[in-house]
Amino acid sequence: MEHMEPTHDPVTNIIGFLALVAFAVIMCNLTLGAITSNLTISQGGRMNKEEIIENLCCYDERSPDYGDLLMSNGGDPQELPRPRVDCGCDNCFYGRDRLAVELLDH
Q1: Which of 8, 51, 77, 101 has the greatest number of CB atoms lying within 10 Å of its CB?
Q2: For 60-71, what is each residue's pLDDT tens digit?
Q3: Extents of the domains making up the chain
């Protein structure tokens, strides 16, 4: 296999640099879009009760996802994991559940 020397062509280097910058900008936009799409805030900047409930642990009986989980489990609530106990759902993982519980308790 023949050893190739790196190119020192300024045009090639600039094109490579611009491609890297474009990739970085795209990745930042995708990341910010994913983060902001998880935020559910109604107009006026205040969350209503329905939006707060959507942020509960999916195993909480008040969560809109709980019914789907219960149906997929055969309808036995004893077989579902307890909410917030070693839970890895998105709302627990990102801390939204903890805040939702605090807001509902007050």
Answers
A1: 101
A2: 989 998 888 888
A3: 10-39, 48-106
Q: Which residues of the chain fall below pLDDT 50?
A: 36, 42
Distance of alpha carbon 93 from alpha carbon 103, whole angstroms: 18
Cβ proximity of 19 and 4 under 8 Å: no
How far is Cα 9 from Cα 106, in angstroms, rounded to an integer?
Answer: 65
Residues in CB range of 100: below 8 A, 6 or more apart:
52, 53, 55, 56, 91
Spatial distance between the Cα atoms of 37 and 35, rounded to a whole number of angstroms: 6
Find the DSSP H helices in 1-106. Answer: 10-37, 49-54, 66-72, 90-93, 96-105
Residue 7: CB atoms within 10 A of its CB come to 10
**What's the pLDDT at 46?**
81
